[in-house]
Amino acid sequence: MKRGHGIWLFIGCAALAVAPAATAKERAPAPTAAAGATPSAPPAKAAPRTILFIGNSFTQGAHSAARNWRAGTVTDLNNAGYGGVPALFKLFAEQAGLDYDVSLETQGGKSLGFHYDERRTLFDRSWDIVVLQEFSTLDREKPGDPTAYLRDVARLVSLFKTRNPAADIRLASTWTRADQTYKPGGHWYGKPVTAMADDLRAAADSARSATPSVAGIVPVGQAWSRAMAEGVADPNPYDGIGYGQLDLWAYDHYHASVAGYYLSALVTFGAITGVDPTTLGPKEKGADELGLSGAQAAALQAVARDTLKGSNEPHG
């Protein structure tokens, strides 16, 4: 009996001696990389897409609070300090999680021909996307005549395609001017408020047909017409603005108001990125900073979305 007890005592002591060693081994930290080893580098961030806006006061956001708004977020190739539609596009893209390097080259009251003849050294380089905006009546001396427009679109497209054959080039088709529609002497006087925008769109379509490298049209004028037809905006600022409706024009009934430029930028954003403008929502930052209510922002976003749905234009 004594010998049996001795054996069991020996086995128990041996087990107690082994257990702490096993536990210590289990608790030991995993081996680390050798000192001085180079950690793996994080994946490189893709470069932002470059986009250039060429146009005049309609791109600048002239006669509204949008003109110099957030100018520091975009590159003005003329160092004039404009933000306008390009700055709105930039903010929309950021809120959508998209990275764009946005530049603009603008001059009030000028045509695309002026930019090609006088300013092309500023932008003669490779761009991913280019948006071209023509003079509001196409030709200052011959309103509605698209001859020079077709020529200048072809020249600019050739320049940009030479620098980058994959460049995505769009034509901005702008809005009806109330002063050209409701005042005697206007080229579209006595015609429906949609007539001027429709003529500008027809000219853009002709330019695209003549220069097939144009990827598509940004239907800003059609969005304005839709906003009026749906009661979001008042169609005639000369007889007062309807209750609950927006005035898309500035005080001169020629340029856009903040609401008009906001709608222009929404359509541009949706056309270029393929993102539904309504995903920006009523709390969109730009609308708040520029004085539009959440309800107004949401209404304009819906107009932009519906215009793009019916445009049959490539998005993104």
Structure overview:
The protein is an alpha/beta fold and 316 residues long. The protein has a single domain, classed as 3-Layer(aba) Sandwich (Rossmann fold), CATH 3.40.50. Helix content is 44%, strand content 10%. It is built from eleven helices and six strands. Strand 4, helix 5 and strand 5 form a beta-alpha-beta unit. The termini are far apart.
Short description:
The chain is α/β, with parallel strands linked by helices. 44% of the residues lie in helices and 10% in strands.
The number of helices is 11
Strand order of the largest sheet: 2-3-1-4-5-6
Q: Cα distance, first to last residue?
A: 91 Å
Please give the share of residues in helix.
Answer: 40-55%
Q: According to CATH, what is the topology?
A: Rossmann fold
| Number of domain units | 1
Shape: globular
> What is the percentage of strand-forming residues?
5-15%
CATH architecture name: 3-Layer(aba) Sandwich
Largest sheet: 6 strands, parallel
CATH class: Alpha Beta
How are helices and strands ordered from N to C?
A: HEHEHEHEHEHHEHHHH
Class inferred from helices and paired strands: alpha/beta
How many strand segments?
6
Tell me the CATH superfamily. SGNH hydrolase
